[in-house]
């Protein structure tokens, strides 16, 4: 993965680990899950990779292969409202995860999307891959439904995007089965 090379160049060390969340395609019912409709979705072999190394100060520093500017924020001082950059999904996810679990450990990371931005539930894949790293470095165990709920809240409440759970649900459901009919709106 290219994000591992970028991590090594940027931080002058090897990443500790990587996380991955697949993109999804939705051939039937796309964009009706947030209207409580049923949709079909398929996870694909492309998605979001994050190379990371934990840091003990509660700060998240993340560079992107796909965006020129990196982001940094303190897990103990997350803005109440969106800032207007690509990291709003991440801030929202950290905010809502932090409501139920103490977040003491941050990380340095590089995030990489393997296809051009847009569609394919890329925002859900970004949010879920970030949540995966945040949970790992803070030793938090979440069920698939908890991950889905946090990702959906980040998109709907923090970022302000009307979305259903189809993109998020693929993390748990479609990694186990090749396709799924989901009624996860609302």
Automatic annotation (TrEMBL):
Residues 6-54 form the Galactokinase N-terminal domain. GO terms for molecular function: ATP binding; galactokinase activity. It holds the Pfam family GalKase_gal_bdg. The keyword rRNA-binding does not apply. PROSITE patterns: GHMP_KINASES_ATP. InterPro entries: Galactokinase, GalKase_N, GHMP_kinase_N_dom, GHMP_knse_ATP-bd_CS, Ribosomal_Su5_D2-typ_SF, Ribsml_uS5_D2-typ_fold_subgr. The keyword ATP-binding applies. GO terms for biological process: galactose metabolic process. Keywords: ATP-binding, Kinase, Nucleotide-binding, Transferase. Residues 89-164 form the GHMP kinase N-terminal domain. GO terms for cellular component: cytosol. Belongs to the GHMP kinase family. GalK subfamily. This is Galactokinase. It comes from Blautia segnis. The lineage of its organism: Bacteria, Bacillati, Bacillota, Clostridia, Lachnospirales.
């Amino acid at each position: 993965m290219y994000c591992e090379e970028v991590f090594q160049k940027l931080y002058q060390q090897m990443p500790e680990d990587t996380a991955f969340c697949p993109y999804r395609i939705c051939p039937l019912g796309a964009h009706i899950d947030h209207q409580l409709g049923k949709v079909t979705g398929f996870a694909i072999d492309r998605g979001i990779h994050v190379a990371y190394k934990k840091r003990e100060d509660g700060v998240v520093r993340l560079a992107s292969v796909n965006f020129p500017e990196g982001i940094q924020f303190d897990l103990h001082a997350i803005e109440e409202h969106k800032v207007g950059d690509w990291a709003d999904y991440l801030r929202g996810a950290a905010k809502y995860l932090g409501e139920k679990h103490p977040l003491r450990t941050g990380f340095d990371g590089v995030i990489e999307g393997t296809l051009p931005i847009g569609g394919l539930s890329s925002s859900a894949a970004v949010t879920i891959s970030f949540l995966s790293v945040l949970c790992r470095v803070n030793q938090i165990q979440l069920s698939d439904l908890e991950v889905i709920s946090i990702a959906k809240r980040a998109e709907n409440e923090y970022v302000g995007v009307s979305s259903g759970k189809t993109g998020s649900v693929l993390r748990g459901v479609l990694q186990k089965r090749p396709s799924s009919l989901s009624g996860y709106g609302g």
